[in-house]
Amino acid sequence: MEQLFVEWLKEYGYIVLFFWSILEGELGLIMAGIMSHTGDMFLPFAIVVAGLGGFAGDQIYFYIGRFNKKYIHNKIRSQRKKFALAHLMLKKYGWPIIFVQRYMYGMRTVIPMAIGITKYSSRQFAIINFASAIAWACITIVPAYFFGEQLLELIKWIKAHWYFAIPLIVLVLGTLYYYINKLEKSIVDKRNNRRNGIKNIQ
Prior knowledge:
The protein has helices at residues 2-22, 26-37, 43-67, 69-78, 80-93, 96-100, 110-117, 122-146, 148-160, 162-201.
């Protein structure tokens, strides 16, 4: 079964990479870097395909925010803090937040949708988004290409010691999720306290 999956990945790798990149999963890009290292993919083409997938994904989220108001209103109800945080960061930092949002776990789909709600230029968003997507693909795939051998050894170790690796991965992801939520809450609370302070002065 595993061999069949590997063969399938080798044959349809670029298609899988494109759609995986739409979802913005670094795991797919790391696999592309490893496959480029083993010669099953062509590194420059893998970077372009991943970049285009990442670009397409954020364009989809941006236009959902701009044209699908019903979906966005439902989304805001369930993720009010994240949308408030996205607007706060866009107002404070401007266009650079579009460039770095791919690295902000928990905010990667929210930020393009939140920007889509505003009157932000769709052309400017597309230009920054494209540059960001190519940079993201390079930053993720190229190191995996150069350290392909070490990563393959790590994969072998994880397969052999899954009973130890899985709890460790869950712990790391859980800790990351906890601190991201804590940071989000801290930023939103500061914003609310600032607003309340202004109201009290008035």
